[in-house]
Automatic annotation (TrEMBL):
<keyword id="KW-0175">Coiled coil</keyword>
<dbReference type="GO" id="GO:0005814">
    <property type="term" value="C:centriole"/>
</dbReference>
<protein>
    <submittedName>
        <fullName>Sodium channel and clathrin linker 1</fullName>
    </submittedName>
</protein>
<feature type="coiled-coil region">
    <location>
        <begin position="22"/>
        <end position="105"/>
    </location>
</feature>
<dbReference type="InterPro" id="IPR038911">
    <property type="entry name" value="SCLT1"/>
</dbReference>
<dbReference type="GO" id="GO:0045162">
    <property type="term" value="P:clustering of voltage-gated sodium channels"/>
</dbReference>
<dbReference type="GO" id="GO:0060271">
    <property type="term" value="P:cilium assembly"/>
</dbReference>
<feature type="coiled-coil region">
    <location>
        <begin position="156"/>
        <end position="236"/>
    </location>
</feature>
Length: 256
């Protein structure tokens, strides 16, 4: 047989109130367990996102390091790129440190929460439950602060990723500008070479014109001299012809 314990009547309201309070505490415990489970899932998602961003940031930095120029003629660009690399490496190191601290803090929070849950299960007196509730509320508040910290950390990771992408774009623009500058320099040199050749050709043509002009003048002088000699020879021939005719006439008269 099972006997029901009979309590004094004056204790009934207290027992009812205690049972009600205990039921509320059990309900709160279930709520906290559910809330902590959701927070744990949220934190695991944050950790996964953090690891993904960390991996992408590391890959982006490694790719940027591989694409950085190391020529001796880059001048101040190399110094700027080196500074960018050092800054990104420092940011990556800080990100790794923050990640390690975040994991350690999460482990500490998980251990503290487990300890409080064990304490709650082992000691169910009202005073101890009140203390545990206070501590649990503090742990939850600390964990919410930690979630806010993780959110800021992820924002910083996004910022670093954006900076890395912008640096890659800037480096690509620099390469394009260097290539365009080299092409323009080569084109300018070709134009200067063509201009120099054209000037030399003009000078050469001017020399040829002067030579042809002098040759034409010489030929003109020779032609004039030849014409003068021809005219003189023609006059002399005419004189000789007249003299011969006179001589022939005189010889004919003498023969008669």
């Amino acid at each position: 047989k099972h006997f029901k314990i009979q309590y004094p009547l004056f204790l009934a309201p207290l027992i009812i109130e205690y049972d009600k309070h205990l039921e509320e505490l059990n309900g709160q415990l279930k709520y906290y367990k559910k809330q902590m489970g959701e927070m744990k899932l949220q934190f695991e998602n944050v950790i996964k996102e953090n690891e993904r961003l960390h991996s992408e940031l590391k890959d982006a930095i490694e790719k940027q390091l591989e694409t950085f120029p190391f020529g001796t003629d880059m001048g101040s660009d190399i110094y700027t790129d080196d500074e960018t690399v050092r800054n990104l490496q420092e940011q990556l190191q800080l990100a790794n440190q923050e990640k390690t601290q975040a994991v350690e803090l999460w482990q500490t929070v998980s251990q503290e929460l487990g300890r409080l849950q064990r304490l709650y299960q082992e000691h169910m007196t009202e005073a101890q439950i009140h203390v545990v509730e206070s501590q649990k509320q503090k742990v939850i508040l600390d964990f919410m602060d930690f979630i806010s910290y993780i959110s800021v950390f992820i924002t910083n990771q996004h910022f670093l990723e954006t900076v890395t992408e912008q640096n890659v774009e800037i480096e690509q623009l620099r390469k394009q500008l260097r290539s365009e500058l080299s092409r323009q320099k080569l084109h300018t040199q070709e134009l200067l070479s063509q201009l120099e050749m054209a000037n030399e050709k003009v000078v050469e043509n001017e020399k040829l014109i002067l030579e042809h002009q002098e040759k034409a003048n010489r030929l003109q002088r020779r032609l004039s001299q030849a014409e003068q000699r021809a005219a003189s020879a023609s006059q002399q021939l005419s004189v000789i012809t007249v003299q011969r005719r006179k001589a022939a006439s005189m010889m004919n008269l003498e023969n008669i």
